[in-house]
Amino acid sequence: MADSVKLSKNLLRMKFMQRCLDADTKKLLEEEERRIISDEHWYLDLPELKARENVVVEEQSFVPCEELRFGRMSFRGFNPEVEKLMVLLNPRAEGEEEEDEEQRRKMQADVTDEEMAQRYQALVGSMKKKFAKKRERAAMDEDNGVAMETGTKRTFMKPQD
Amino acid sequence: MQVPELLQRVGQVLLPGDEFRLDQEDNISLTEVSRPSRAVCGPGLRRSGARLLVCKSGVLRHKAPNVFWIDSQQKRYVPAKGETVIGIVTAKAGDIFKVDVGGSEQASLSYLAFEGATKRNRPNVQVGDLVFAQFVVANKDMEPELVCMDSSGRANGMGVFGSGGLLFTVSLGLVRRLLSPLSELRSDLEQLFPCELVVGMNGRLWVRSCSVQQTLIVANLLQSSDSMTAPQRKELFRKVQQGAL
Questions:
Q1: Where does the Exosome complex component RRP40 N-terminal domain lie (chain B) (predicted)?
Q2: What would the DSSP string read from start to end of B163-218?
Q3: Close Cβ partners of B32 (under 8 Å, ≥ 6 residues apart)
Q4: What is the ipTM of this complex?
Q5: Which of A65, A107, B1, B73 has the highest CB neighbour count under 10 A?
């Protein structure tokens, strides 16, 4: 019965027919469709474009070439705001940079490495306490000799008149 | 690479039409470590296919490692991206201001491109005001566009300025001489009297000093130092320092 009545391909491709198609016919139809699409596509018959690496970067401005400074300046404290900007925006000259380095070294000498280490050593205990759980904290306190105090129970002492 | 050929011509005068070939090595040598050296061609040089063309007359300059440009004298300003200029607001048109920067076309400046400006809080800019602004769009096919803040939204010295000062125009070469890192002109000026300068890459200078007289002196000195040698200028500055003060 099925062999005698053949449905046309166009009918099979319709949406409502998709449900009752079996896998083989579905694949066949898809292949044909793909073939039709690829046949209809056209392309230019050109030699392949070779992407050459760009070795030259174009720059329209003088500013990066000549390392020009920022365009606002103030001399002898006429406009303190602008003088602050000048320090901020202009790259330092080499001589100034050395001075800066010296200053930085001096500033670093304020707190020596040893002082720093000692300070952090003292901090280790308190930081540890902060992150410990309640029970652990109690244990830690006992280790530190706080247990001695807890032994003597505090009582209310009546004040004398 | 094209570098050796260009390096030979550094310091010489080149004319528009001179060209260099950008030859790439086709065969990679096995012994040498191949390092992709990128050349930067600044103003006055243009890349066209495999050629490097000179399009301004002037002296070829070089900066290590690989930057080349033509040092030329000109008075016409051509907007370039990233440069800061002094503009004059000529019109308010809805959301943008039109700004004259001395280029072939007026630049546009959005009212939102100021520090702290929002749709509700418009900046107070009037026609005729001076603005110190930076180009974000500048190419030969499009209208140049200015902003008065940097990428993080800070003004950093840009914006409306200019009360009690004097604006005048000098050549683009003088502007570059004023802004160069080791500028003698600037250090000479520094010794004169307290003053403030705004220098636009478009050749506009704005000066303000304690009094009108001093402002005029500084302006005249700067204008005349455009066509002076260094000793001449030093002499003049010394005279002014002694006489006029």
A1: 12-66
A2: SS-EEEE--HHHHHHHHSTT-HHHHHHHTT--EEEEE-TTSEEEEEESSHHHHHHH
A3: none
A4: 0.81
A5: A65
Residues of B in contact with A87 (CB under 8 A): none
**B181–A85 CB contact, under 8 Å:** no
Residue type, B10: V
How many helices (DSSP H) and strands (DSSP E) are in chain B? 5, 16
Which chain A residues are Cβ-neighbours of B190 within 8 angstroms?
Answer: 75-76
DSSP structural state of residue A158: P
Total domains in the fold of chain A = 2
**Which domain does A19 fall in, by range?**
10-42
Whether the pLDDT of residue A42 is over 70: the answer is yes
In the structure encoding, which two tokens stand for residue B73, read together?
A: 């004298």
What SS3 class is residue B147? strand
B158 contacts B133 by C-beta, under 8 angstroms = yes
Question: What global pTM score does this model have?
Answer: 0.68
